[in-house]
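The passage that follows is intended for readers who have already worked through the single-chain material. We present the inputs for a multi-component assembly, then the predicted structure in tokenized form, and finally a short commentary. You are encouraged to pause after the input and sketch how you expect the pieces to fit together before reading on.
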Amino acid sequence: MRGTRFKNYLAGPLTAIALSVSLTTLILIFLGERPAILWEAFSSTFFNGFGLGYTLYYTTPLIFTGLSVAMCFHAGLFNIGSEGQLHLGAIGIVITSSFFPKLPMYFAIPLALIASMICGGLWGFIAGFLKAKRGSHEVIVTILLNFIGITFTNYLILYPFKNTSVQNPETIEIGQGYAVPLLSDYTAKLGSELFRTTPVNLTLFLSLFASFLCYLFLFHTPRGYELRALGQNPSASKFNGISQTANFIIAFTFAGALSGLVGVNEVMGYHHKLIEGFSPQYGFTGIAVALMARNNPIGVIFSALLFGAIHNGAREIEFLSEHVTKEISIVMESLIIIIIAGQSYFSRFLNRSRGENFR
Amino acid sequence: MMELFSSSLRLATPLIFAALGGFLCERSGIATICLEGVLLTSAWTAATVTYYTQNPYFGAAAAMVIGTLTMLIHAFLTVKTKADQIISGVAVNLLAAGTTPILTKLIFGSPTNTKAIPLNARFDSLSLTLVACALPFVIHFVVYRTGWGLRLLAAGDGPEALKTSGVSPERVRIGSMAIAGSIIALGGVYLSIAHASQFTRDMTAGRGFIALTALIFGKWRPLPAFVTCLLFGFTDALQIQLQSSPMFGNTFPVQALQILPYVVTLFVLVGFIGSARPPMAIGKQD
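Having made your guess, compare it with the prediction:
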């Protein structure tokens, strides 16, 4: 029994990691770099307070987008629109702060959380609604919504909310009450240097909590059961009276709300303003995160940690190396996706060679 | 006015190549969101090979080979390994976005751009635009009037029927994707060595997705997709001109125009303006 569980959850991802690390090492050798640099970068992203702080900072948004994509995958939907939804979420925060700039922290933060979830959720809702009611393909709709959402965000950054005293495309600062405390504030109080000068903040715990809630929702509520049943076998669930319309809309709205929370980490946790291009494609990396986690909300935490480390490690590699740029992380990501996506084929291939084709 | 017209045509050219390539893939039954990635790898190849050979034809030929190979990665993943077509497309896009700056850094020392090509070694942009205007008609004829084209349509709309008649839909799909790769590559060639004189990081700037949008707006047909590309080229040209005109200067929100193609396509897709039906077998794994 334990053997099967291992095979289901861990064997695939672990092979994917092993294969992609080997391939990346080969690429590094090809680029004229010492292969040991991969280990050096990896150890610096985990084994010192500064590196770990940044790794956890990048992990936080990836947990949200990973959950967002996983939520839709469970319902048999493909959410490629996380990128647009997270932009909308960030807008929600900026708008809230512009209306109530002086609000004290205990009101400001919950209000902004709700605003980011509503705005992100709205963007998800549109996709879910169009899929459920009009049968429009959700991938195409979300690609279009991504462009509309990002361009709209850029408009808000450049016109109504522009900080005119600086050249850079960024908004005015959000109210002081909206700042989410950094983890380094707490460690400093304890006299520790851990996480000093890193942007990792309390949103990390929010993302962990969100993973837990998603797990409860998907595996321990009737609605979550309906959602998964619909994803597993649409026609059987329909005959059992499970509403496709309601579940599609719910899955996409929840997914949008989860993506929207990325803004909390970026705008309220770190920058304290909205900057054009603030997301280094967290939404697309979320697809890799969900795939790696096999759509398990708890697995998403570990998978996001891995991709956060890859993202942070690549910056470290760029710093250490004369030949390699930080885009090595994107290459590694794409290799992982390719390996996981083709896994059934590759494993069939392996099984055949071992003569285990008939199970 | 003439300026606006010619600038629209110039901006539409890469979109047309990409949309036509996308047409061949999608109508054969494979969802292809990796147009962006193919444009990127082919643009990089064209700029690099042309810089070293000082001959744009070598650059274009190499770009067509690399464009085809990039598309064949997608073909291998979707047709052979039966991977999800969208996931495979995302992976190919990421692969292209990651490898091009790394290779630029390896060869030219800077990750942001390749070295500039002198004017006399650049591809004639007018000839490529003319090809782009003729190609939709050629493809329309080939796809709707020849046996190969009908097999392609059957692979997308009724692969079972095709299989019964003794033709492998998988082979048809791989073939049409290979051809599509070399057509999309011409868009990349246009971007890096005809329209510009070098490759810059992420120079495609979402054009692959705009081309996909145009294809959907054209309801997965070559000639309407062609007209849509011209229309999108026009809005882009208009937007650029408004941005630089002293009358509006910085006050006109050009984002309103940038958004327009996507909003209108969304309405078409949803069925408020006609209805767009994708090929039957698209996205399905048999």
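Commentary: Chain A touches chain B through 44 residues (CB under 8 Å). Chain A is about 75% helix and 0% strand. How closely did your sketch match?
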